[in-house]
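Task: fold both queries, return tokens.
Query 1:
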Amino acid sequence: MRFLIDRMHDELNRVIQKPKYQEMKFEKLSVAEQSEKWAAYYRLRDDSIMTDLFEGQLMNRTTCMSCGYQGLAFDNFMDLSVEIPKKAIKFTGTVNINDCLDKFIEPEKMIDCGYKCEGCKKTVNVEKDLSIFRFPKILVIHLKRFYHSAMRREKLNTTVTFPTLQLD
């Protein structure tokens, strides 16, 4: 499905000539204003009926574990690729989609990664987390159905349940 959406987007892209890449720095703006600036930049490059329907925006927050400085970056997405939590694989054999989404946005500590903090100007350890800042009109969720171990790759047969609520 992703391939089909990408190909249709390429064919229906309203942008004839894409602008050159530029460095984006908006630290002094509010989160909402930063999001809007990033969205406008992406629209200059990619704008089609497919992006109108399927494109959302992720907010990537990087927090310095030394000084607390937070850097934000925004990325557009056409689908969310979420993994099935290991607890469901090992113990229950079933998982709710909300657990998969919680795993997707779970903060991650990055130790000795070489990240240079813009706040304290040192190479530091950081914590990164993702959140969905703008939802698309149509949300596509891709479940990662393979588990990779040191020795092999295995397909997961875990049952994924969805809430009985009407999604809108």
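Query 1 returned. Query 2:
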Amino acid sequence: MVGILILSHGGFGECLIQTVAHMLGDKPTRLRALGFTRQADLLLLEGLAREAIAEVDEGKGVLILTDMFGATPSNLAALLVEPGKVEAIAGVPLHKQ
């Protein structure tokens, strides 16, 4: 299974994970979230993101999902991309239905 890391503002990523766990009946093992605050130390977050990538990668790669393109989470994701191993997609929906 491809690992998934959600980089987002605040607790948005954790909310997505809770929703997935509710729909599937359990949280996928290779799924993590890392939330950003205004006071976040980007060097620390980069290290935490790299650790999370290592945790969720079982050899088939990692997909990073971020909330807003051009914001800090997606900019960090761009630094973490390794073509064919770690890929990123920005723009995970922020709206309620």
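Both queries returned. Flag for query 2: Helices lie at 12-24, 42-56, 72-80.
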